[in-house]
Amino acid sequence: MASALTVLRRLYLSIYNWLVFVGWFQVLFLALKALKESGHEHVYNAVEKPLLLAQSAAVMEILHGLIGLVRSPVSSTLPQIGSRLYLTWGILWSFPEIRTHILVTSLVISWAITEIIRYSFFGMKEAFGFAPSWHLWLRYSTFLVLYPTGISSEVGLIYFALPYIKASEKYCFRMPNKWNFSFDYFYAAILALGIYVPGSPHLYRYMLGQRKRALSKSKKE
Amino acid sequence: MKVTLVSRSGREFINGGLELPDSATVADLQEAIYKRTKKFYPSRQRLTVPVPPGSKERPVVLNYKKSLKDYFDEKQNKLTVVFKDLGPQVSYSTLFFFEYLGPLILYPIFYYFPMYKFFGYGEDRVIHPVQTYAVYYWCFHYLKRIMETFFVHRFSHATSPLSNVFRNCAYYWLFGSYIAYYVNHPLYTPVGDLQMKIGFGFGLVCQLSNLYCHIILKNLRNPDGSGGYQIPHGFLFNIVTCANYTTEIYQWLGFNIATQTVAGYVFLIVATSIMTNWALTKHRRLKKLFDGNEGRPKYPRRWVILPPFL
User: Fold this and answer.
1) Chain A residues near residue B191 by CB distance under 8 angstroms
2) How confident is the model at residue B232 (pLDDT cuts 50, 70, 90)?
3) Which residue of A has its CA nearest to B263?
4) Chain B residue with minimum CA distance to A178
5) What are the pLDDT digits (tens) for B136-156?
6) Do β-strands B159-161 and B2-7 pair in parallel, antiparallel, or remain unpaired?
7) Which class in CATH covers the domain with range B2-87?
8) By the 8 A CB rule, do A98 and A157 touch?
9) Chain A residues whose beta carbon lies within 8 Å of the beta carbon of residue B185
10) Cβ-proximal residues to B118 (8 Å cutoff; 6+ apart), any chain
11) B187 close to A (CB below 8 A)
């Protein structure tokens, strides 16, 4: 018997997932439209609003994990969302000079396709209680291509933004001050690039494991 | 007697098993495994009594001093031992020595050598008294740790996995450099004189208390290296289980009060959370072991690590 709380939870999660799905669908649609009509330099401007909204909404998922609304461990959602927010707000929104780079197109398309599949998958499960096996297959297979393309775009964009980061001195906190603290956004960006080196193979291997578990489980059913 | 050795998946680990005299000890078995496999020296071996499949019990680890007869299964009339390779091992003294060597050498480099020209600062620099006291305090701390490693501590296990060397050295060496960079910086802003004296004074008292705590812990254990657990008592241990961690945390607090850097406080927070984790495990283990049943003493009510918080 479904209790009132379970129904509320499913209702909330269905609405959440389908709403964010619509956001990412818009991103993909507008990106492809801009690419065809104006060229890759104009993709960011076309997708900016739905991109910022849909990506920032993902912060809710950390909350969902913390309060136990969903099963995903916070430890795996946090780095994923962290890197997405860093690219969206910390690189693309903060440094307009990078927005015309062609890697923005590959980034946005990789992210959008992945998220469209993912959010609709969860939307289906919460709203209807099941998702067709081809959907499951898509969710656990497209990452095989989209993670490399997405991660390469992320790394490339951070790298090409470095000169703009250094020149602008944005988000820097300098010495002297009474707390003897300093922060240099340029060096932080280099550190971020460094994290991708062990982080990407680790994440990819984790997804491969998830894929094996999910697809073999569905075969048994 | 014949000893059958299996891996955790159930496969026979040494074909045909090993033949040992009836009076043999577990240590003899470890030697025999090493002789046969040539690769797995005793500290790499984890030998356990097999648990029935599906059982949730934690497997019993064979004690190297006991004789094999103690683990012989009378009902099945055989001795089966489960083998696990713990990977390359390093002695705790070696691990600690290299972890502490980093901060001991790297920090003074930032104090004595013109490092900051590599960060774009000029070579001239005014050295404040607090920076000088800080380098002495820091080096005293890590020298003390190295001395304790060789002359005071009695470890419950002789070795630690090799991978811990990389992980632990990264932690100490990176944090050491991070803090050293800020305390010795040409644009460093010192705190007032009184605050500095309070910080270092308090820190020093805590360091000496910490040394005394380590000596008390050492005397709890048998010199023959058999490890084991006793209820700690004496000095601060009467009110807090992990008084050694308490004094260590407060000692770093003293250093930070005197030197006032965000880097130092970040380190303090990380170190405190790591030690709190250890303290909770130890406190729970002692409470479970000393439950007051069957003649065992009952573990008294005590703070875990940081009165009045935990």
Assistant:
1) 178
2) confident
3) A181
4) B189
5) 999 999 999 999 999 998 887
6) unpaired
7) alpha beta
8) yes
9) 175, 180
10) none
11) yes
Q: Which residues contact B60 (CB under 8 A, 6 or more apart)?
A: B48, B49
Minimal CA–CA distance to A156: which of A183, A185, A186, A196? A196
Torsion A68-A72-A78-A82 (CA) sign? negative
Tell me which H or E stretch contains A8.
Answer: helix A4-37
Residues B260, A179: C-beta atoms closer than 8 Å? yes
Closest CA to B14 of B106, B87, B82: B82
Write out the E strands in chain B.
Answer: 2-7, 18-19, 45-48, 79-85, 89-91, 159-161
Contact A181 B260 (CB under 8 A): no
| Cβ–Cβ contact B131 with A under 8 A | no
Locate tokens 């988000």: which residue?
A: A171
Q: End-to-end alpha-carbon separation of chain A, Å?
A: 23
SS3 at position A13: helix
Spacing of C-alpha B34 from chain mean position = 27
Q: Where are the domains of chain B?
A: 2-87, 90-289
CB atoms inside a 10 Å sphere around CB A187? 14
Q: Does B189 touch chain A (CB under 8 A)?
A: yes
Rounded CA separation B73/B83 (Å): 17
Cα separation of B80 and B72, whole Å? 8
pTM: 0.84
β-strand pairing of B79-85 with B18-19: unpaired
Per-residue pLDDT reduced to its tens digit, B78-125: 888 999 999 999 999 999 999 999 999 999 999 999 999 998 898 888
Interface confidence: ipTM more than 0.85: no
Provide the total of helices (H) and of strands (E) in chain A, helices listed first.
8, 0
Give the nearest partner residue to B185 out of A178, A179, A180, using CB atoms.
A180
H and E: helices and strands count for chain B: 7, 6
Instruction: Say whether B189 and A181 touch across the interface (CB within 8 A).
Output: no
The residues of A carrying an active-site annotation are 147, 154
Crossing angle of helices B129-151 and B193-220, in 10° steps, is: 0
Count CA within 13 A, CB hemisphere, residue B266.
13
DSSP letter assigned to residue B6 = E
| A180–B182 C-beta distance less than 8 A | yes
